[in-house]
Every structure is written in structure tokens, then in C-alpha cells.
């Protein structure tokens, strides 16, 4: 952002960390009205319709488990091996019995077993029938004994007992038998039942995953927007006229391809929208689809990325197949750099290999052997320098359209789009709002309009005024006001002198931006006060004088503290950091030092302005000379700013006292405080000009009334009443 907001920082407390978009498109349409939908090819997800099926399957599972348990364990009672042997020792007579304690410790039951018969034995189980009777407690006592109750005794681990169990049964005179060959129904029925139950479960499972789970990994996640739901055209886009003009030709390609192919022209394969975040790249793609009247597929670059290698490439192929089935279509890929990053020279594993395979698939689909000439790919990115060169060559992305930050006129046009549904005061001047929002993109302007409307509603106003827009700009640039923060009088006075030093140096320094407002009301995370400067118009280049003026303004705050109080505070941290960075850029980037016009910093700048890769290509001696030149610039400008503040010390005191009194000083009031005589003459001149203009308006109105009276006097009654022919 080109505005300068000099903030007085509060010192960080212990353990505290300090740190500091809708675009110009219309507000997002609710999902139920947007019409976004997946390609109709895949069947609808069965999640909502299969609730009854799931309940039915669960019921079948429960019944099957009970049935299987009946086949496997048909016995009602289990006896311990020791109790069984004791009962055998009693003999086979009906009078022989054994009383056993069963159940948990707190609910013991006394059960009597007798009449043991029908004994069958195998390697694992001894089974038979007994008569069972519960004797105690009274509430569980059996009314009459249960006869022929099936029981079993587990003997696994005691199989090799040298026939001890058989000898014991023979000695006591029991009749017994060995388990015969297992029947097919007894042992195979449970497995067959489980198999029959598994088939419908697997069918339902694969049907479910085929639409929403692992089986759908290779299906594209692109959303096709219905044509009737695309109500955005180029008339809804503002502030990017050059980009709109460039994209209109793409629309003409889609509408009338034969017109260009008849002359040997080729429809472009792709259009790459490049620009900072929030400038309106997405709405431009929607406008192209709305104007061309063709199917529109929208997705993000991250939708192709998965953990498993090959999934992204399959999704790319599936997306292009869907688009080609619909003839002419537009595929919009947002954040293309997620899959289109430059390939490295070495082969790696994991996500790097997956991304490269996805990129290779995209390259082939855009310009390969089986490429369709009826599908246009529109992509958006804010880091074009990271994209692979093979992706940017002609034949793939033939057009690269820059969607840059809007200028003054562009910001005014964007504001007109966003205020359509906002009730504004008649005094609103959109040009003035655009002038104080230098550097704002469409997303910032949309947020500004919304913030102003919320502020007006919060204060109970019936319309939005300039006051809310100004406050909205300050909120976006400096943060929220903190009027409830309690500051000691000494701190508040120091902050007032600090901000007054910024404002006074900016006012008297040639090349400095105009001071729009000075405030000692805390804002944001760490700003105890701020001086808001803004240029008169958009700036694209800066001179050495202007850069030096910015450094002097930044140093003015700490110098004002030192001159007034004899020392300075930690509030100048951000000022010193920014001043040092400007001076370093003057020495290393712009050649504005005694070292000559040489660039010492070799780095690749991103579209956002931050250096991606930095390398040092100079010696230690040159580095020392750079540091010395940097120090010379700062010390020279430090002396100039100190001299100015010492010369204007009375004005500094006057401005600080006024700031302590009112807390906020605007541009006109600042001029009246620092140069009252000059401000008075300017005000008189302005009043005189407005008086002359008023007199001319009165004279013009009088002349118009006189002319009308003379015409009326020369008109006869017949002329006044004669009907027109």
C-alpha cells in the first residue's frame, strides 16, 4: 500500500508476540442459489437414501450372529470339568446329585444337578443332559426341576489324560458315546451364512465408497456451474479495463470460432490471469463464461493434490474428459501454482513426485496428441515466477493477462459497483474516497464499503457518510481504535510529541507525502499513535528526494522525543526498521549512494514484492562499504531532521499541546497550527473565490428570470391559448 502510516509502537510485554478477500466482484451468491454442482456423470451419493438399508443390514447381522451362535453352541449350560467329574463320581442313579454355587460373588445361586445321561465326548468337549434345579436364593428358586437340560464341559488341554475320563465313566457304569463324523450342515452352515451376508454388505460398501470415498480419488473435483446461474458479465467488472478488453477476444473465440479458423487462426489453449490477491481474477473468469455462454468448470489447484501418487494426474484427465463431452467449455483453475510449480532437477519422492505427475498430465491435456481445440483453460495465480516454463510456452497458456491494482479511476469505478445496495449521504464523493485508498485492491474496497455501512448502522445513522468511509480506511490500514486503553499522562505526552515530530517533518520536507491525519488514539496490536500520510495521486516511481523525505519523516518521531525529553523510547522500533530498509534499498538496489549506480542485491522479486531468492555476489570489503554508505545516508538525514525540529521547536510544542487536547488533527487544522498566517490567507482566498462564484450564480439566475419575463410579456393571449398544429 502506498500510504504511509507512521505508528508509535508500545513496548512488547513478556511472552507477547507481535505481528500485523472479496475482490471487486459482487458479494458471493448463497450456495442454494449459486447452481454449483458436480458433473452429472457420477451417480448421486447414497448417504441420504441408504439409512433404511443400513438399518436392515444391521438387523440381518444381529439375526445371523444369533443363528450362528445357535449352530456352534446349542448348549444351555456349561459345567466345569471338576464339577462334572464329581457328578460322575456320584454314579448314574437318579438319586445322585451335586449342589454347585454359580454366578458372581454378590449374586450367588445354589444349583442342583442330577440324572446325568447321554454323555458324548470328543477331543474338545464333553456333552450330555442333566436335570437342573435352582435351590437358592428364594426369588430364583425353581418351581420344578428342568429335565434334559443340555450341557457341555470343555476339556481342551486335558485330552491326553491316558483315558482317565473313559475309565472313570466305565467304573461308575455310565453309558457314553464318542462324537461321530461332523455333519455338513452343522459345520458348514455358519460359513455359508456369513458368505451370503457378506455379499450385500460388500455391494453396499463399494457403492458408498464409489461416490464419496477412496474409490473416487481419481474422479475430478471440478464443479460445473449451470449456465443459467452465471449472471456475471463484463458489465459487472470494474477497475480492470485492460484485462477485460484482452478477455473479450477470448469470448469471441468461443462464440464464433469459425470466423478465426477461416483465416487460419487458432483458438488459444489457455489464458493465465496474473495479479496480486483480491484484484478480481476469479470474477473475470466467471464473466468470460457468462459472456460466452458455455459450460464452466471451476476448481482449485489444490483439488488435484493427494497423498497417493497418480491420483492428481487421473483427476486432470477426468476433468478434461468431462469438459470435452460438452463441446466448447471453460475450465477455470484457481491457484495454478499449487500444481504448476517449476520442476526441480533431482527426482524426489512423495508429494514432489505426485505434483510432477499431475503437472505432466496437465501439459499433455493442454497440448498433446489428443488435445481438444474446443476447451479453453483459464488459470489464476499471484506467483507466476514459480510456474514451470513448459506450462507458460505458447500452445498452452497463449495469453497472460495482468490483473493489476486499480488506479484512481479504477478504484472509483469499483466503488460504484459495491455501493449499489448501500444508502449513501448526498455529500459522498467517490473520487475523494478513491484518493484516500491508494493501493487498495477490489477486495479491500469491498471490505471498506461493508465496514462503512456497519459503522453507520452501529451509530444509528440512516445513511453512510464520509466520516464512516474515512474511519473504514483507517481501520483497514491501522487497525481498530482502542479508546478504552488507559495510558499514563507521561506516556501520552511522549506519544503526542513523537507523532508531532513525524507530522512536522513531513509538513516542511520537500517531496514528502501530505499528512492526512495525526492521532494519539491507540489502534491495532501495537500502535499507540499514528501519522497517516497519503500521496496526492498514484505513484509508480520515486525520486531520491522523495525517498530521503520518507526517511526523515520516519526519524522525526524519535528525534522529537530526544529534543523534548532528552531521551527516546521503544516506540521508534518500527520507524527505525523501515528507515533502515529504505536506506538499504537506496544503496543496494537503486544506486543512490556514494558507491555509484550499481545494484548489489541480486534476488528474484515476486509479484507481491517480497524477495524470494537472495544471493550475495560481492566481497566482504564491498559489504563493509555498503554498511558504511547506509550509515552515511541515515546520519546525514538524521542531522537534517534534527536541525529542522530544533528550528521549529515552538511549532512542535504548539502542535503537541493541541494534539494532547484534541487527540486527532486533520490536514487543514495542521496547516493552521504550523503556519497560521499562511492558512488564514489561503482561507480568505478560498472564501473570496466561493463568493465570486456565488455572485455569478445569482447574476445568472437573475438574467434567466428577466429573459423569461420578457418572453412572457411578448406573448399574446391568442398565442398562449392557440392549440399546437
Helix content: 40-55%
Q: pLDDT under 50 segments (min length 5)?
A: 13-49, 715-725
CATH homologous superfamily label of the largest domain: Peptidase M41
* Helical segment count: 23
Tell me the radius of gyration.
Answer: 44 Å
Taken as a percent bin, the fraction of beta residues is 15-25%
What is the general shape? elongated
Mean pLDDT: 77
Q: Tell me about the biggest sheet?
A: 7 strands, mixed
Quickly give the structural class: alpha/beta
The assigned CATH architecture of the largest domain is Up-down Bundle
Count of DSSP strands? 19
Structure characterization notes:
The chain starts with a strand and ends with a helix. The chain folds into 3 domains: 73-180, 2-Layer Sandwich (Signal recognition particle alu RNA binding heterodimer, srp9/1), CATH 3.30.720.210; 223-405, Rossmann fold, CATH 3.40.50; 414-674, Methane Monooxygenase Hydroxylase, Chain G, domain 1 (Up-down Bundle), CATH 1.20.58. The chain contains 23 helices and 19 strands. The strands form 4 sheets. A 7-stranded mixed sheet has the order 2-9-11-12-13-10-14. Residues 13-49 and 715-725 have low confidence and may be disordered. The relative contact order is 0.09. It is elongated and about 135 Å long. The chain is an alpha/beta fold and 725 residues long. 47% of the residues lie in helices and 15% in strands.
Amino acid at each position: 500500500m502506498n500510504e504511509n502510516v507512521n505508528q508509535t509502537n508500545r513496548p512488547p510485554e513478556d511472552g507477547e508476540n507481535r505481528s500485523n478477500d472479496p475482490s471487486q466482484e459482487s458479494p458471493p451468491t448463497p450456495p442454494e442459489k449459486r447452481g454449483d454442482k458436480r458433473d452429472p456423470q457420477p451417480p448421486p451419493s447414497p448417504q441420504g437414501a441408504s439409512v433404511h438399508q443400513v438399518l436392515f443390514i444391521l438387523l440381518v447381522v444381529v439375526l445371523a450372529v444369533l443363528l450362528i451362535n445357535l449352530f456352534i453352541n446349542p448348549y444351555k449350560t456349561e459345567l466345569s470339568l471338576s464339577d462334572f467329574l464329581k457328578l460322575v463320581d456320584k454314579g448314574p442313579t437318579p438319586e445322585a446329585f451335586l449342589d454347585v454355587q454359580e454366578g458372581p460373588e454378590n449374586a450367588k445361586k445354589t444349583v442342583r444337578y442330577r440324572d446325568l445321561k447321554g454323555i458324548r465326548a470328543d477331543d474338545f468337549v464333553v456333552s450330555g443332559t442333566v436335570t437342573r434345579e435352582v435351590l437358592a436364593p428364594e426369588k430364583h428358586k425353581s418351581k420344578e426341576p428342568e429335565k434334559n437340560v443340555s450341557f457341555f464341559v470343555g476339556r481342551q488341554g486335558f485330552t491326553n489324560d491316558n483315558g482317565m475320563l473313559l475309565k472313570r465313566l466305565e467304573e461308575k457304569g455310565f453309558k457314553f458315546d464318542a462324537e461321530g463324523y461332523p455333519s455338513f450342515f452343522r459345520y458348514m452352515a455358519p460359513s455359508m451364512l456369513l458368505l451370503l451376508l457378506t455379499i450385500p454388505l460388500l455391494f453396499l460398501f463399494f457403492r458408498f465408497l464409489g461416490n464419496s470415498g477412496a474409490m473416487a480419488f481419481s474422479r475430478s473435483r471440478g464443479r460445473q456451474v449451470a449456465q443459467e446461474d452465471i449472471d456475471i458479465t463484463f458489465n459487472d467488472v470494474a477497475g480492470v479495463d485492460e484485462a477485460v478488453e484482452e478477455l473479450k477476444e477470448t469470448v469471441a473465440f468461443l462464440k464464433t470460432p469459425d470466423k478465426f479458423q477461416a483465416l487460419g487462426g487458432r483458438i488459444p489453449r489457455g489464458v493465465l490471469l496474473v495479479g496480486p490477491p483480491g484484484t478480481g481474477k476469479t470474477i473475470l473468469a466467471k464473466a468470460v463464461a457468462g459472456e460466452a455462454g458455455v459450460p464452466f468448470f471451476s476448481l482449485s489447484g489444490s483439488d488435484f493434490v493427494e497423498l497417493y501418487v497418480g491420483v492428481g494426474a487421473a483427476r486432470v484427465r477426468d476433468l478434461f474428459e468431462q469438459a470435452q463431452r460438452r463441446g466448447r467449455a471453460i475450465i477455470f483453475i484457481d491457484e495454478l501454482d499449487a500444481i504448476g510449480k517449476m520442476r526441480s532437477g533431482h527426482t524426489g519422492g512423495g508429494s514432489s513426485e505426485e505434483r510432477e505427475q499431475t503437472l505432466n498430465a496437465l501439459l499433455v491435456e493442454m497440448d498433446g496428441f489428443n488435445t481438444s481445440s474446443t476447451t479453453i483453460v483459464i488459470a489464476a495465480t499471484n506467483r507466476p515466477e514459480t510456474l514451470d516454463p513448459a506450462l507458460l510456452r505458447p500452445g498452452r497458456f497463449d495469453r497472460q493477462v495482468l490483473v493489476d491494482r486499480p488506479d484512481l479511476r479504477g478504484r472509483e469505478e469499483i466503488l460504484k459497483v459495491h455501493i449499489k445496495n448501500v444508502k449513501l449521504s448526498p455529500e459522498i464523493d467517490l473520487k475523494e474516497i478513491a484518493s484516500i485508498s491508494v493501493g487498495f485492491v477490489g477486495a479491500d474496497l469491498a471490505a471498506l464499503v461493508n465496514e462503512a455501512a456497519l459503522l453507520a448502522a452501529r451509530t444509528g445513522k440512516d445513511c453512510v457518510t464520509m466520516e464512516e468511509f474515512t474511519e473504514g480506511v483507517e481501520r483497514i490500514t491501522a487497525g481498530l481504535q482502542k479508546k478504552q486503553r488507559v495510558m499514563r499522562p507521561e506516556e501520552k505526552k511522549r506519544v503526542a510529541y513523537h507523532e508531532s515530530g513525524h507530522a512536522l517533518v513531513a509538513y516542511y520536507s520537500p517531496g514528502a507525502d501530505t499528512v492526512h491525519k495525526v492521532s494519539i488514539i491507540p489502534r491495532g496490536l501495537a500502535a499507540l499513535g499514528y501519522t497517516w500520510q497519503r500521496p496526492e495521486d498514484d505513484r509508480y516511481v520515486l525520486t531520491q528526494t522523495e525517498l530521503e523525505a520518507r526517511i526523515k519523516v520516519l526519524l522525526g518521531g524519535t528525534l522529537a522525543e530526544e529534543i523534548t525529553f532528552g531521551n527516546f523510547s521503544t516506540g521508534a522500533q518500527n520507524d527505525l526498521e523501515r528507515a533502515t530498509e529504505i536506506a538499504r534499498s537506496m544503496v543496494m538496489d537503486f544506486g543512490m549512494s556514494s558507491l555509484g549506480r550499481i545494484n548489489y542485491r541480486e534476488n528474484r522479486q515476486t509479484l507481491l514484492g517480497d524477495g524470494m531468492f537472495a544471493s550475495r555476489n560481492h566481497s566482504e570489503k564491498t559489504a563493509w562499504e555498503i554498511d558504511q554508505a547506509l550509515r552515511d545516508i541515515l546520519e546525514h538525514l538524521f542531522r537534517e531532521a534534527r536541525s529542522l525540529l530544533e528550528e521549529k521547536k515552538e511549532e512542535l510544542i504548539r502542535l503537541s499541546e493541541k494534539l494532547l487536547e484534541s487527540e486527532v488533527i486533520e490536514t487543514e487544522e495542521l496547516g493552521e497550527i504550523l503556519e497560521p498566517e499562511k492558512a488564514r490567507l489561503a482561507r480568505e482566498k478560498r472564501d473570496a473565490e466561493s463568493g465570486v462564484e456565488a455572485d455569478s450564480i445569482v447574476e445568472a439566475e437573475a438574467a434567466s428570470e428577466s429573459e423569461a419575463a420578457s418572453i412572457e410579456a411578448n406573448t399574446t393571449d391568442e398565442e398562449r391559448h392557440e392549440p399546437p398544429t
